[in-house]
């Protein structure tokens, strides 16, 4: 009888291992799909930035990302017209 319960326990563990392996494979496929999607979005953002820079250069104005690395622009402060 102990051999049968041992065999049953082994069968349960093997089934559990198969379930875990299938779950890990599904996660791996999802992560690969997410990485492909993220790479595509990154490409689109870079292409959009390139086009914006090209348009800004044609119009003779600085691109919005040219002021700071974080993409914020800082308008020039108004000049003082004070005459003393």
Could you explain how this protein is built, in words?
This protein is mainly alpha-helical and 84 residues long. It has one domain (2-62). The chain contains 1 helix and no strands.
From N to C, what is the helix and strand string? H
Given the helix and strand composition, which structural class is it?
mainly alpha
Mean pLDDT: 84
Sketch the major β-sheet.
none
Count of discrete structural domains: 1
Portion in strands: under 5%
Shape: rod-shaped
Number of helices: 1
Low-confidence stretches: none
Features:
single chain; 84 residues; mainly alpha; rod-shaped
List the helices and strands and how they pair.
Layout (H helix, E strand, L loop, with lengths): L1 H58 L25
What is this entry, summarized?
By secondary structure, the chain is mainly alpha-helical. The chain has one helix at 2-59. Helices cover 69% and strands 0% of the residues.
